[in-house]
Amino acid sequence: MDNGSGPEIRSLEIRELECFLVLAEELHFGRTGERLYVSQSRVSQLLRALESRIGARLVDRTSRRVALTPLGERLLTRLRPAYGQLADAVDDARAAARCVTGALRIGFLGSANHGTTSALGLFHARHPEVETTAVEVTMADPFGPVRRGEVDAAIVLLPVSEPDLTLGPCFERQPWTLALADGHPFAGRASLDAEELAEVALVAPAAPAPAYWRDSQAPPRTPGGRPIPRGPAVSTLQEGLATVAARSGGMLLCRPTAETNARADVVFVPVEGLAPSELVLVRHRDTDTATLRAFARAVGDAIGVSAPEPVSP
């Protein structure tokens, strides 16, 4: 609710308030500037700006002395404890950011393969005081849980081209397999060439997953340019496998996911000629805590690579 002073309050600059508090202690423009690492003229400028916002003088300044006006004394009485509380809140946040504590929720796509569980296990061994939870994220919305704060980070398949997310580290690259119903003409093959995908309707992730990401999991064309039929859209890995088992299409899965989801009515045939799949840890660009950095290091150590600083796509 705006009580009439809201816009002025929102436009206040912390530096102006800090300058006033230091000046109230020093009662000297030069020493105030030294403490704030600014020039004396800058101190005067900040004070004038604050007085302009308030609409009255806060400091009386002569050639011999500097003193607070009655209004300045009143402001000081109210401002000093409030500023102290604000500083304490920032200090507490900084301390929390340096400590690996609390809870960590990590999303995984479809199934938690060995690389994911190894990273989670290593992190828990290093930081047993952190409550760690693994949460499945759906194929239809791989990035939404990170944005909504439902998970602190997620392990998803590349590509990721989301400006508000940071990436890293990446897991090792893995070859693709094609999930097919037992009895499909290709089911008995030792491998398939990527060009042969033109003969299979590919089960694809559903919206709201971005179109570029859906196309990467179910390419619309072979590397040689042949069109690939689009099969049903599914929201989860298990929906996809059930759709495959019902002979409604094939589904591209990386080898570790295929190994984790072996079932009697589905076979997994290696596909040659596609760029390998790769998992990556993603988190929101504005989220950076010691706990998340520690988990990123655990991911890097679990897969045998150094965890780089996260980057924006």
CATH fold assignment of the largest domain: D-Maltodextrin-Binding Protein, domain 2
CATH H level, superfamily name of the largest domain? Periplasmic binding protein-like II
The number of distinct β-strands equals 13
**Which residues form runs of ≥5 with pLDDT under 50?**
1-10, 305-312
Shape: elongated
The major sheet is characterized as: 5 strands, mixed
Helix content: 25-40%
Query: How many distinct domains?
Result: 3
**Structural class assignment:** alpha/beta
Number of helices: 11
What is the C-alpha radius of gyration, as a whole number of Å?
A: 29 Å
For this structure, what is the CATH class of the largest domain? Answer: Alpha Beta
Beta strand %? 15-25%
**In sequence order, what are the helices and strands, one letter per element?**
HHHHEEHEHEHEEEEEHEHEHEEH
Quote the average pLDDT: 88
Explain this structure to me?
The protein is an alpha/beta fold and 313 residues long. It folds into three domains: 6-98, Arc Repressor Mutant, subunit A; 103-173 and 278-302, D-Maltodextrin-Binding Protein, domain 2, CATH 3.40.190.10; 176-275, 3-Layer(aba) Sandwich (D-Maltodextrin-Binding Protein, domain 2). It is 39% helix and 23% strand. It contains eleven helices and 13 strands. It has helices at residues 6-11, 14-26, 29-36, 40-54, 70-98, 114-126, 144-147, 211-217, 237-245, 255-260, 290-302; strands spanning 59-61, 66-68, 103-109, 131-137, 153-157, 165-174, 176-181, 192-193, 202-205, 230-234, 251-254, 266-272, 277-284. The strands form four sheets. The protein has a five-stranded mixed sheet with strand order 4-3-5-13-6. Strands 8-12-7-11 form a four-stranded mixed sheet. It has a two-stranded antiparallel ribbon with strand order 1-2. α6 links the parallel β3 (103-109) and β4 (131-137). α2 packs across α3. Residues 223-232 have a biased composition (Low complexity). Residues 12-69 form the HTH lysR-type domain. Belongs to the LysR transcriptional regulatory family.
